[in-house]
Amino acid sequence: VQLQASGGGLVQSGGSLRVSCRASGFSLDYYSIAWFRQAPGKEREGVSCIGTSDGSTYYSDSVKGRFTISRDRAENTVYLRMNSLKPEDTAVYYCNTQQRGTDYWGQGTQVTVSS
User: Fold this and answer.
1) Cβ atoms 38, 45 nearer than 8 A
2) Beta bridge partners of 16
3) How far apart are CA 101 and CA 96, in angstroms?
4) Given this model, what pLDDT does residue 53 score?
5) How far apart (Å, rounded) are the C-alpha atoms in residues 92 and 82?
6) What Rg, from alpha-carbon coordinates, does the chain have?
7) What is the pLDDT, as a whole number, of residue 11?
8) Which of 66, 24, 28 is nearest to 47 (CA)?
C-alpha cells in the first residue's frame, strides 16, 4: 500500500490549487481516502474524505464550500480541489487510508497561501 501526494505550492490568498493522492497496491473501489493537514505548531486535522462504493464525501467546517474532493478510478487517484484559499489553509497536506486497522500516509505536500 502506497500513497503519493503531489500538487502543493505557493498561491496568493483567494487563489486555487489542486493536490493529488495517487494510490498503489489497492483499489479506491474498496478503501476510502482522507485528506489531513498539519500547520506549524498545530495538530494534524482532518479536512475531507471520500468513501468507496457511493463516493460519499465529508468536509470539515473550515473548508466546506471551498474544497472539493473527487476521485478518478482509472488513475486510482484522489484529488482535493481547493478554492478561495486563505492564509490559514497553509499546511502540509497528507492523504491517508485505513486498512484492517493500519493507517497508511502519503509523504505530504506543502501548501502555502500568502496574504
Assistant:
1) yes
2) none
3) 13
4) 75
5) 14
6) 13
7) 98
8) 66
Task: Count CA atoms within 13 Å of residue 17 on its CB side.
Answer: 22
Q: Which three cell numbers stand for residue 59?
A: 468536509
* SS3 of 45-110: EEEEEECCCCCCEEECCCCCCCEEEEEECCCCEEEEEECCCCHHHCEEEEEEEEECCEEEECCCEE
Identify the burial level of 52 via C-beta atoms within 10 angstroms of its C-beta, where 0-12 means exposed, 13-18 middle and 19 or more buried: middle
Determine if residue 107 is left, alpha or beta; phi over 0 gives left, psi from -120 to 50 gives alpha, anything else beta: alpha
CB 32 within 8 A of CB 95: no
Identify whether the C-beta of residue 20 lies closer than 8 Å to the C-beta of residue 6: yes
Over 90: is that where the pLDDT of 95 sits? yes
Nearest to 96 by CA among 47, 62, 57, 56: 47
Q: Which residue in this structure is represented by grid cell 502543493?
A: 8
